[in-house]
Design brief:
By secondary structure, the protein is of the alpha/beta class. The protein is built from 17 helices and 26 strands. The longest helix is centred in the C-terminal third of the chain and has 23 residues. The chain starts with a strand and ends in a 17-residue tail after the last helix. This is Glutamine--fructose-6-phosphate aminotransferase [isomerizing].
């Protein structure tokens, strides 16, 4: 959930490198931030608030050192204050630590350390780590052994980086929380995510659970818990550093909404043959699932609902589960394929669900955006959505790419009578999304309803997950009340909330029974004086009953879900902009939820 950066080898540029890396990681947390540089002592500066607040604090300070670590925080233990900001130090001030994750046994460790005379200055679980290292150093251990000894006493999830006064190294370890090394020509980096150092190198090494890294002027080494050196592959990042900039857009979210045509082309490239009417995902092997269980959270869960419907319509039993529920009450699996849908590949609840499935002998597949992520490494198979880096906390282009990738998965592993039509619609999808982006009246709708007391979203079939996702986006970035429903559920309770000040967004595509029934639901809310915004391809007569219409091109219902979602993303974005919200960094949220 938090962002870690470290570097060795940048000389006088170390501080600037750390702060630059933190600015690239702020989507992971923005409650507070700090840096620590090591020389014969530790120079440290930290501050509550955003990276800009840290920069201002640094303007009055002189920090020196060619070895350093930094951190941007999303609060778990303790509120976002200067005292709770990372890095944390020991009693001597000779050890500095940054941490992402949760140390589950921190209270017993803290009680032990307080009893031994240590003084704590924060409410965080992290602060036990520098004090444990201090104890080991005072007993004669060298810095690396002291860090290893402290790490060995921790229970829970963590990515940890450490510097020690008088030592020219950064030490790091991970367990259930991501860490990646960046290998430059004259410098070495570590971070929670590649964007932190992508401006300096495209060579990366992904650390696995239980691995320990040491970075110094001689380079880097990775060892296991016993100190045995592990030979690691050095991978090359395929995306360009410019992809993590705003490219002239006011917000990352708007930029990433507009990147959806390119993201979809990348997802589909080399995987569909429209002439043959086939899909090639042969690198996954012959999955041939007789049943599918999807596990996911948040936006990815809405994509999983879409995926489950695809398989059910192909005659294969499929369900989507909230990963947090699946992990603690795993249902019978049988010989089902368990598919984890996770943008980052590091979502803690989804990883727990996948591990629970593996313990029961299930085959597992990760549908993810990040090569080398924990989910991709731990699952039997990985299907990459190829969306490119996404910085905005609210997922946009990754959701569209997840829907496309799940269509490919269903087409490539099952039989459906309209495969050619679906493939044709998928090939047209990037152009159709561009058409929506170019012509959407979403801003005008947002201007009309920015003061609404609540927003409701309804849809059936493939459009039900889109309704849920539309409501989630509205909640995430506008802070307004929003709910999504299967359209038929309106009259079973939610209709009591509908008033003239609660616009209802109705997604109606095609002219089949689902469309006709949804129009019936539109009439129900219209009779209660609620304004109706229809998202439609024009095949039905829903426009007769709508106050406003957002048009999408006529296409297959599977692809129509992506197009309708694009309109709803834009409505939420423009509403949030009109309300003056912090769109890329919504309150209380972070991009990648790496703690349970």
């Amino acid at each position: 959930m938090c962002g870690i950066i470290g570097c060795v080898g940048r000389g006088d540029e170390t501080l600037d490198t750390l702060v630059h890396g933190l600015s690239k990681l702020e989507y992971r947390g923005y409650d507070s931030a700090g840096v620590a540089l090591a020389n014969d002592h530790i120079d440290l500066c930290k501050h509550s608030g955003k990276i800009a607040d840290l920069r201002e604090a640094l303007s009055d300070r002189t920090l020196s050192g060619s070895v350093g670590i930094g951190h941007t925080r999303w609060s778990t233990h303790g509120p976002p204050t200067d005292e709770n900001a990372h890095p944390h130090q020991d009693c001597t001030g000779d050890v500095a630590v940054v941490h992402n994750g949760i140390i589950e046994n921190y209270q017993s460790l803290r009680d032990e350390l307080v009893g031994a005379g240590h003084t704590f200055t924060s409410d965080t679980d992290t602060e036990v780590v520098p004090h444990l290292i201090e104890d080991a150093l005072s007993s004669g251990a060298d810095p690396e052994d002291a860090v290893r000894e402290a790490i060995g006493r921790l229970d829970g999830s963590f990515a940890i980086a450490v510097v020690v006064a008088g030592c020219d190294s950064v030490f790091a370890a991970r367990n259930d929380s991501p860490l990646v090394l960046g290998i430059g020509e004259d410098a070495t980096y570590l971070a929670s995510d590649v964007p932190a150092f992508r401006d300096f190198t495209d060579k990366v090494v992904y650390l696995a659970d239980g691995e320990f890294a040491r970075l110094n002027d001689d380079g880097w080494t990775v060892t296991d818990t016993d100190g045995t050196v592990i030979e690691k592959d050095v991978d090359t990042v395929q995306w360009d550093p410019e992809e993590t900039g705003k490219s002239g857009y006011d917000h990352f979210m708007l930029k990433e909404i507009h990147e959806q045509p390119r993201a979809l082309r990348q997802c589909l490239r080399g995987r569909v043959d429209e002439l043959a009417g086939t899909v090639d995902i042969g690198d996954l092997g012959d999955l041939s699932p007789t049943g599918v269980q999807f596990v996911a959270c948040g936006t990815s869960y809405h994509a999983a609902l879409h995926g489950a419907q695809l398989f059910r319509e192909a005659g294969i039993p499929a369900q989507a589960f909230l990963a947090s529920e699946y992990a603690t009450a795993t249902p019978p699996i049988g010989d089902a394929l368990v598919v984890g849908v996770t943008q980052s590949g590091e979502t803690a609840d989804t990883l727990s669900a996948l591990r629970a499935a593996r313990r029961r002998g299930a085959r597992t597949l990760a549908v993810t955006n990040v090569v080398g992520s924990t989910a991709a490494r731990e699952c039997d198979h990985a299907l990459y959505i190829r969306a490119g880096p996404e910085i905005g906390v609210a997922a946009t282009k990754t959701f569209a790419s997840q829907l496309a990738a799940l269509n490919l998965l269903a087409l490539g592993t099952s039989s459906t009578g309209d495969a050619r039509q679906v493939i044709s619609a998928l090939r047209d999808l990037p152009g159709h999304v561009q058409e929506v982006l170019d012509e959407s009246a979403a801003q005008e709708v947002a201007e009309l309803y920015q003061d609404a007391s609540a927003y409701f979203f309804i849809g059936r079939g493939y459009q039900n997950p889109v309704a849920l996702e539309g409501a989630l986006k509205m909640k995430e970035i506008t802070y307004k009340h929003a709910e999504g429903f299967a359209a038929g559920e309106l009259k079973h309770g939610p209709l009591a909330l509908v008033t003239e000040n609660t616009p209802v967004f109705a997604i109606v595509t095609g002219d089949d029974e689902r469309a006709r029934k949804t129009i019936g639901n539109v009439k129900e809310v219209e009779a209660r004086d609620a304004p109706v915004v229809a998202i439609t391809d024009g095949q039905s007569d829903v426009e007769r009953y709508a106050d406003h219409v957002l048009h999408i091109p006529e296409t297959h219902p599977r692809a129509a879900a992506v197009l309708a979602n694009t309109h709803l993303q834009l409505v939420s974005y423009h509403t949030a902009a009109l309300l003056g919200r912090n769109i890329d960094k919504p309150r209380n949220l972070a991009k990648s939820v790496t703690v349970e």
